[in-house]
């Protein structure tokens, strides 16, 4: 038993050591601007999407605004809250959580530390028993994206440029946040091709569904076998399996959050990109300028908060006529003539 | 969706389970609880990715993966046999340790907390290359692992000692069976075998991603229990669970049954097996006891 305690103690010490070794990161801590702490989501830095976007926004703020930015990459479970708390207790000007998973922790800490500013990327608004939306605390800014609008556009691309009446969607965890992608995508497909069919597969019902490339590959392979040519994924690193399946069978996939062309060059038709970088930068800038306010900030097509990739790599995969049609759709959504559903 | 395509999918999903369950049966039959399968698999996946990346050869990757699993198997063995630490705790510790270590070294080697660069895989070949592309020798090996373990457990002198040690270590000891040594071999082997399941995952994806085993080690453990610690039955359970997963993937489009129900099948079956509905589930008598 004593040996067990020693073992656990050593492991804990090593764990703390690793946590501390991570903090600080590569960013400058010497500026004169606000002190900012960023805690990453599962996946961490180098995910080539979400967290890297936040990292980019943070480092840009460090460079151009003189902000002192620190990054913490939590391990499992409770570390998340510990990372946020550490930053809040040290009196950071802004504590930023990347990912919907921080919602509860941020809400709790914002009440506990009313003088600290908080921001949550993808913060999930809660509803009370009567079904009314509970506004976030006044020192917490919820950075939300209208992913359904971007998904609508890539849905239109998949249906118009895919060359098949069947299009695919692979989601990570089966939750409302991902349903938003599915709903927008489906609406986009149906808008340009009413007799198309959308095949949908989710990798699971636990957070593990976001990091299960093996499962993603299997779902994608069965969709391709069923006659699908293009699959849009919103599934974190599970989607890497979707790209692998596209590469293996010579079909196409659509990336999410960031430009994922490099995952399978030639097989990534486009990516639905989410402007995490400008949203994070904007939050830091507002703290520096002293006009930070709580509440919801929503980023959609109109704010360039979401969009799709069209550049020299994938230009050959999207015909000009499709591009023109999709740009038309974008303008109609911004003008409010098309209402994109966010639930399925 | 043709029948062959479905069967190929079941097979592809089952391979990691087969490796892990084959390894797990060995350790459990020697009396050591094998909760670290998930960690062994993940270490195998990571070491394979590293070896493959720096050598450019999937075979080197396979070898490195096996060595990685062997190492963590030995760690598990030293902690539970030499130091008699609680086997369940050690298993969980190994799983957590490997998650942390792989991420740490991922960062060190590839400057990413999420995934490795693209690595070489096995080149597909043979008559089923369309269905089992890129798996190389891993699928035949995966199918062989269960019969091989069954042969080892039931048809060799080592297997006899293994079972004796798992049922009644004191009696085995009095007959001159080196209890600790048998257990060391069994647990180290279980690490190496389970790691091969992880190797398959990494090579099939052509990259390592953080926690890519996604609970497969636990499913394999469930298969062992459902198979009542018999390697052949555990192998059948693996195929059954993989079949359920295939069904779940195929059912999602149809909405006939909520796919969540289908994904519950492995866990439900395990509970049913533990409750003793399908025959009596009697684990090796000395399982989990520190001597």
Descriptive account of the structure:
The complex is a heterodimer of chains A (344) and B (291). Helix content of chain A is 42%, strand content 21%. Chain A has 344 residues and is of the alpha/beta class. Chain A has two domains: 24-145 and 276-299, Response regulator (Rossmann fold, 3-Layer(aba) Sandwich), CATH 3.40.50.2300; 147-273 and 310-334, Rossmann fold. In chain A, strand 10 (230-234), helix 8 and strand 11 form a beta-alpha-beta unit. Chain B is mainly alpha-helical and 291 residues long. Chain B has a single domain, classed as ABC transporter involved in vitamin B12 uptake, BtuC. Helices cover 70% and strands 0% of the residues of chain B. The chains are: A alpha/beta (344), B mainly alpha (291). The interface between A and B is large, with 45 and 49 residues.
- Largest sheet features of chain B: none
Low-confidence runs of at least 5 consecutive residues of chain A: 20-28
Whole-number radius of gyration of chain A?
Answer: 21 Å
Through-space gap between termini of chain B: 52 Å
Quaternary arrangement of the chains shown? heterodimer
Helix content of chain A: 40-55%
Secondary-structure blueprint:
The complex is a heterodimer of chains A (344) and B (291).
Chain A (H helix, E strand, L loop, with lengths): L1 H21 L12 E5 L10 H16 L2 E5 L6 H11 L4 E5 L4 H10 L4 E5 L4 E2 L5 E2 L5 E6 L1 H15 L4 E8 L2 H17 L4 E8 L8 H13 L4 E5 L4 H11 L2 E6 L10 E7 L1 H14 L5 E5 L6 E3 L11 H15 L10
Parallel strand pairs in A: 1-2, 1-3, 3-4, 4-7, 7-13, 8-9, 8-10, 10-11, 11-12
Antiparallel strand pairs in A: 5-6, 12-14
Helix pairs in contact in A: 2-9, 5-6, 5-10, 7-8
Chain B lengths: L2 H27 L7 H19 L2 H25 L4 H24 L27 H18 L1 H11 L1 H6 L4 H27 L10 H11 L4 H21 L7 H16 L17
Helix pairs in contact in B: 1-5, 1-8, 1-9, 1-10, 2-3, 2-4, 2-8, 2-9, 3-4, 3-8, 5-6, 5-8, 5-10, 6-8, 9-10, 9-11, 10-11
């Amino acid at each position: 038993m004593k040996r067990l305690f020693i073992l656990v103690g050593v492991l804990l010490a090593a764990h703390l050591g690793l946590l501390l070794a991570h903090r600080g990161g590569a960013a400058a801590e010497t500026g004169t601007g606000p002190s900012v702490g960023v805690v990453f989501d599962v996946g961490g830095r180098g995910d080539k999407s979400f967290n890297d976007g936040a990292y980019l926004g943070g480092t840009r703020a460090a460079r151009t605004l003189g902000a002192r930015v620190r990054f913490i990459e939590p391990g499992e479970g409770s570390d998340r809250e510990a990372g946020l708390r550490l930053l809040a207790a040290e009196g950071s000007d802004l504590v930023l959580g990347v990912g919907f998973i921080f919602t509860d922790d941020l809400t709790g800490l914002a009440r506990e530390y009313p003088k600290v500013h908080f921001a949550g990327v993808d913060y999930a608004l809660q509803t009370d028993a009567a079904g009314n939306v509970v506004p976030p605390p006044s020192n917490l800014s919820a950075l939300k994206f209208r992913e359904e609008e971007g998904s609508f556009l890539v849905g239109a691309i998949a249906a118009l440029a895919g060359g098949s009446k069947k299009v695919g969607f692979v989601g990570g965890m089966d939750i409302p946040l991902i349903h938003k992608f599915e709903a927008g995508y489906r609406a986009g497909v149906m808008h340009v091709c009413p007799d198309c069919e959308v095949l949908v597969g989710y990798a699971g019902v636990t957070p593990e569904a976001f990091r299960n490339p093996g499962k993603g590959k299997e779902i994608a392979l069965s969709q391709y076998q069923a006659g699908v040519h293009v699959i849009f994924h919103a599934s974190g690193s599970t989607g890497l399996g979707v790209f692998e399946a596209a590469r293996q069978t010579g079909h196409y996939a659509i990336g999410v959050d960031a430009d994922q062309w490099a995952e399978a060059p030639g097989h990534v038709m486009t990516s639905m990109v989410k402007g995490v970088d400008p949203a994070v930068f904007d939050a830091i800038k507002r703290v520096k300028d002293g006009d930070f306010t709580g509440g919801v900030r929503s980023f959609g097509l109109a704010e360039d908060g979401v969009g799709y990739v069209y550049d020299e790599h994938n230009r050959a995969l999207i015909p000009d006529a499709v591009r023109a049609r999709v740009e038309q759709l974008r303008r109609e959504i911004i003008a409010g003539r098309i209402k994109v559903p966010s639930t399925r | 969706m043709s029948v062959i395509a479905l069967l190929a999918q079941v097979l592809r999903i089952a391979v990691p389970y087969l490796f892990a369950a084959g390894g797990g049966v060995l350790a459990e039959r020697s009396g050591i609880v094998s909760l670290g399968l998930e960690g062994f698999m993940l270490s195998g996946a990571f070491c394979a990715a590293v070896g493959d990346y720096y050598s450019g050869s999937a075979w080197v990757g396979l070898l490195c993966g096996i060595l990685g699993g062997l190492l963590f198997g030995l760690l598990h063995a030293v902690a539970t046999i030499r130091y008699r630490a609680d086997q369940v705790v050690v298993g969980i510790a190994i799983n957590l340790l490997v998650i942390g270590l792989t991420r740490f070294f991922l960062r060190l080697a590839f400057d990413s907390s999420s995934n490795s660069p693209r690595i070489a895989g096995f080149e597909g070949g043979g008559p089923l290359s369309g269905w089992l592309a890129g798996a190389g020798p891993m699928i035949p090996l995966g199918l062989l692992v269960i019969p091989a373990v069954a042969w080892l457990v039931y048809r060799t002198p080592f297997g006899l000692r293994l079972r004796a040690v798992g049922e009644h270590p004191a009696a085995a000891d009095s007959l001159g069976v080196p209890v600790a040594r048998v257990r060391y071999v069994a647990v180290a082997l279980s690490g190496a075998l389970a790691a091969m399941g992880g190797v398959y995952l990494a090579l099939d994806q052509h990259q390592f991603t953080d926690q890519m085993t996604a609970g497969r080690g636990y499913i394999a453990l469930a298969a062992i229990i459902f198979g009542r610690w018999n390697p052949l039955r555990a192998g059948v359970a693996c195929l059954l669970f993989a079949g359920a997963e295939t069904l779940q993937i195929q059912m999602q489009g149809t909405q006939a049954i909520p796919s969540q129900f289908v994904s519950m099948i492995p866990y439900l079956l395990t509970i049913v097996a533990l409750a003793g509905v399908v025959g009596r589930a009697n684990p090796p008598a000395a399982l989990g006891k520190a001597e």
